[in-house]
Amino acid sequence: MGFGAASPAEARAKLEKLKLEATAAAAAPPTPSKPEDEDAVARLAQKILRSSSIEEARQHAREATNTTNDPRLAPLFQSPSKGRDKATPGWPESVEMYLGPTNSGKTHRSLDFLAKIGSGCYAGPLRALAWEVRHSVEARAKKVWGEHPPTVGLWTGEESRDPDAPVLCCTAEVAPSHGNVLVLDEAHWCADPQRGHAWTRLLLAARSGRYRHVRICGPVQSEPLLRRVFEKHEHAVTVHRTQRRSRLHFERDPIADFPAFLQQAKSERRFVAVVAFSRAAVLSLAGIARKAGARASVIFGKLPPEARRKQLDDALAGRLDVLVCTDVIGHGINLPLDDVVFAETKKFDGTQRRDLYVWEAAQVAGRAGRDELPGRCWYLPRYGANVKLLTKAVKAANGDPGDGFDLDLSKAVLAPDLSALTQLTGSVPSILLLPKCVTQWRDELQRSLNDSDDPLDWVKSGDIDELQRRLDILRNSSLVPDDVRKALSASDLWHLARLPVREQHFEAVARAACLGEQVVFGSLDSLVDEQLEDEVQRLGDVLMASRRFPAILVGDDAVDEDDACLAAVACHEALYLYGSRLIGHGVGRQIDDAHLCKVCGQPKGPNSKIKDRQCRRCFAIQDREAAQAARQLARQYARVQARSQPPQLGHALS
After folding, report:
1. Residues sharing a CB contact under 8 Å with residue 127, sequence separation 6 or more, in sequence order
2. Is the pLDDT of residue 8 over 60?
3. Model pTM?
4. Is residue 554 scored above 60 in pLDDT?
5. How do 375-379 and 339-342 pair as beta strands?
6. Helix (H) or strand (E) holding 27
7. pLDDT value at residue 71
8. What's the pLDDT at 558?
9. Which residues pair with 341 in a beta bridge?
């Protein structure tokens, strides 16, 4: 059962869904149309109801597309995600770019177009953003299509909801490579060394005509690069410069009394986001906010999607006064924020702890301000926020001229796929040769880009170090025996290396997928806090891998039994959802306990640092005990050394 492939049970379910849609279409009140259109509605519904297979039902729908334009049948005419309507290769019918700062309506206008057409794909950087956009497009489609709008699906690395829907909201990595409409959000991500290849892949699909209509959203600074992408047909490209709808102000005076600031914000009904970059800092700041009487919650890295959405839903519904979070809000998530407060401006990027780039800070700060209402950006001096960085970030967020935008958008990032490596070597390479082939691809790309006439002179190679590390792991016979590896296809192994699972889980997932071993999970009820979060993350990574390697859920013996696979997926998805809710329910307790010492359970005190896990008293006791233990070990070592010394000559003669 391959990635995205339908089992017989899934196919039967899809066929039943088509029949229900056909019944609804036949029973729906007529819209103003020609009489022959009404007859086509009835004929199509009867044909689909008599269909014996999903392929036959789809064929009847395709045959009817030339005879009726009744909007009630729109959901039936759309192709599933694997077989979406393809545009004619060559050039898209329309390309429009909406370029401007945050809060300028870029994405709003693009989503209106997607809802109006009723078929296509939205691609963005975050699962939470894809979820938010899905609800937004559903609401817009209802206004356009009335009682029978096209369905809107969700497809991300960790979850899928109705992935065969005519409109699909995705993270960029899993977005289809062809369709009717493409809305590519946060286009500047194409320059990101790790993830940029996903945006570049969609830009290549857009310019080759695999999407009929293309809408691209991004900052003004991305315009030169995007024009190079479409330079051969620049006359067909329309660029809209959008302006920020409200002014963002930077308050240079620091917040001296944080609890008093939050109390005033609550009395004035201002919604505040506080930005920090460590779990301890996020929880502690939320604890301070709650002690000040504010309704506060948190979003940090290990929160699963279900728990994150709960916090975002509370924020959108007005059930929160303060949201303490990381820079997740800077990637397009729309919250009704009045103020953004930076507690920290340094973050760990996977390799080192560094200052935010100006463009990163601008994306976060720019979330303050709703529609025409101005926003304000603040900082807390106690935690080391960089004032010069924030000054530049606010200017960039307002769209003011200057050189503060420090993201290199000279070229988009490209990464190899298996077809490119096959074309390079003349045959499908084995896993033993794949790391070398990836290096060869990068060198060949660099040589070709040195030619000024190369049509892809706007791309560069991305960071392939992580990919090569994974390929080296897969060709290691101590992890995957040679006979097992030879039985797997190069496509399977390549897909496994490209899975967006966390590095700490990759080896275990890879071994289970290759050997057909079932990954077993214990009870989640006995786990709390970080242990629970780690286990739910592991469960999410295994579920992601199971889409192509179902044996990791059921074992190799039952992998050919479709009903067993579907049951195992449903069971583990339910367990994942249960774990996510346990984490969500435990967030409040963690916030309340953040100011308590992890050793004695008493308050840590007003002078403790935000990342301290224990109070000064317990720290002093622990330090004293450690010193005593060290002195005792030193004395024992001295005695052992004295016994092992050989006797001196004078003592021996006596």
Report:
1. 156, 157, 158, 159, 171, 305, 308
2. no
3. 0.76
4. yes
5. parallel
6. helix 8-27
7. 38
8. 67
9. 274, 378
